[in-house]
């Protein structure tokens, strides 16, 4: 009997330890404190979170943006700078009670998948409190570029979010056959999608997002602009929620 009680007690303690470790991330989030802001000289009126860090270990979420000729023209950057808020939040209605979030991601960036789920969860939980404008920023080669173009082409048929969700949640190679099958799954015209991937509209969308990344000095993906706050790389759920609350209190429209 004593041996059995000891075994049960040990199992109870072990279960408690496991639960404790599982709860640790949420506890760290809860007590991680408020973010510290640093004003940006350019673009004027924006600020960024200081001390943002990349993920530890072998994977670094700050991927790419090497200095290279990416086809981005000075006049494109100038045009985006002249109407910055519209370029950032073009898909988001202007509502002072809603904080807009511009999310920049790459379908081949592992941490971007975490960010996408986090943003989707927050948008659902806060109901109308936030509105997300998704920006495709393919940095990891031809596959990333084809996936981004396919998602933007799906947007022309009103299926951007469904297509995006499918790309985020499954491993894939964006071959023609795969994109045709995925188009059929989400209920859009696959041949039209393939053609639209090379359209001027899709190319312009990619250039606008690329210009924004240059203007805000993003060094990779994932990246976000929450109201007037620029965020690069990994942050906790609690810090993101704090930034949203602060932007709502401060009035993000001060910059637009």
UniProtKB/TrEMBL annotation:
Domain DSBA-like thioredoxin residue range list: 102-234
Record Gene3D superfamilies: Glutaredoxin
Organism of derivation: Thalassobius vesicularis
Highest taxon of source: Bacteria
Protein known as: DSBA-like thioredoxin domain-containing protein
Coiled coil stretches, renumbered: none
GO MF term set: oxidoreductase activity
């Amino acid at each position: 009997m004593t041996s059995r009680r000891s075994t049960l007690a040990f199992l109870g303690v072990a279960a408690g330890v496991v639960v404790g470790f599982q709860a640790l991330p949420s506890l760290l989030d809860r007590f991680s404190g408020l973010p510290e802001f640093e004003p940006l000289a350019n673009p004027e009126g924006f600020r960024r979170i200081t001390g943002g860090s990349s993920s530890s270990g072998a994977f670094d979420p700050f991927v790419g943006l090497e200095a290279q000729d990416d086809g981005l023209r000075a006049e494109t950057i100038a045009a985006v700078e002249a109407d910055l808020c519209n370029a950032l939040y073009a898909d988001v209605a202007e509502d002072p009670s809603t904080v807009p979030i511009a999310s920049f991601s790459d379908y081949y960036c592992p941490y971007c998948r975490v960010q996408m789920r986090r943003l989707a969860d927050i948008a659902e939980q806060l109901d109308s409190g936030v509105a997300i404008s998704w920006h495709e920023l393919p940095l990891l080669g031809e596959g990333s570029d084809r996936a981004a173009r396919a998602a933007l082409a799906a947007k022309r048929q009103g299926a951007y979010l469904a297509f995006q969700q499918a790309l985020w949640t499954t491993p894939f190679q964006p071959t023609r056959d795969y994109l045709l099958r995925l188009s059929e799954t989400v209920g859009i015209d696959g041949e039209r999608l393939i053609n639209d991937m090379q359209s001027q509209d899709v190319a312009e969308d990619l250039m606008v997002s690329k210009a924004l990344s240059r203007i805000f000095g993003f060094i990779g993906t994932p990246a976000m602009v929450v109201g007037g706050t620029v965020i690069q790389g990994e942050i906790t759920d609690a810090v993101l929620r704090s930034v949203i609350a602060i932007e709502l209190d401060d009035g993000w429209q001060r910059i637009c």
